[in-house]
Amino acid sequence: MISPREHRPGGASADWVSRLPELIEALCKDWRLSLDDERMAGGAWGVVLCCHTASGSEAVLKLCANQERLRAETSAMLAWAAGPAIGVLAHRPGALLLQRARPGRPSRLAPSRLALLLNALHRPDNIGGLGLGDWRASVNAAVLQVPSLQALGRELLREGEGRPVLTLHGDLRPANILEHRGATAVIDPVGIAGPRELDVASAGLYNNWGEESSARIRRLAKLTKTDPAFALRFGQLSAMYAALAPRY
Question: Where does residue 157 rank: exposed (0-12), middle (13-18), buried (19+ CB within 10 A)?
Fold first, then answer.
């Protein structure tokens, strides 16, 4: 028997958790899925279950209490349908069905390969539809929680005005870059519409190949032909927010 209370994700209400078995049963019926076993993994935003489709394909079912959060993730994944992302098999509010990555190991990419991944994600034709988060709202939310970031936040908003806006991942840590069928594929994007430098900063902060973080960001900016100073300021905001934001 599935015991969702043992895997309660952060931010999920008790009511949503209590309805999980019913939600899962309905999705399995509508999408003709069979669960691999009764264990589920709980994360920060929802729960994940391994399953098979009616055709026998391996899949992953993801349910999220925050529908807006999952909508942004889904929008980004659909924008990358022909690119470096795990394929979306089905989706509806609060639920997302994905291909299962095989072998699915996290990838620690060298700078040149990470830059190629960023370029593939940031192609102009990979612009997601409705549902992506706004990078300016993310900056404002960070400033709201950490008032000492106000000056840096204003500077970023001013510098970002008028820059091209693309579909960004927003959390390019190795755990979200997987080996999949001989290639590299991303999962779990935040799903943001914004300037490329935000992703360059994220990738530089989270992927350590032996240099300090500012050097990593500058290297990726050079390889992706993006603005290194702008990327560094995004990195500074992210690092300071991670260190100073209140924990609940």
Answer: middle
CB contact at 8 A, 77 and 98: yes
pLDDT at 3: 47
Q: What is the pLDDT of residue 1?
A: 34
CA dihedral 14, 18, 24, 26 (to 10 degrees): -120
Tens of pLDDT, residue by residue over 140-185, are: 999 999 999 999 999 999 999 999 999 999 999 999 999 999 999 9
**CA dihedral angle for residue 2, residue 87, residue 102, residue 44, rounded to 10 degrees:** -40
Q: Which two tokens stand for residue 225?
A: 């032909």
Nearest CA among 84, 118, 80, 85 for reference residue 225: 118
CATH code, domain with 230? 3.90.1200.10
167: β partners:
193
Question: Which band of pLDDT confidence, cut at 50, 70 and 90, is reported for residue 40?
Answer: confident
Range of the domain at 182: 104-244
pLDDT in tens, 227-248: 999 999 999 999 999 999 987 5
| Rounded Cα distance, 196 and 228, in Å | 11
23 with 98, same domain: the answer is: yes
In whole angstroms, what is the distance from residue 15 CA to residue 102 CA?
Answer: 34
Number of domains in the chain: 2
Beta carbons of 197 and 231 less than 8 angstroms apart: yes
CATH code: domain of residue 78: 3.30.200
**Structural domain ending residue among the three candidates 53, 76, 103:** 103
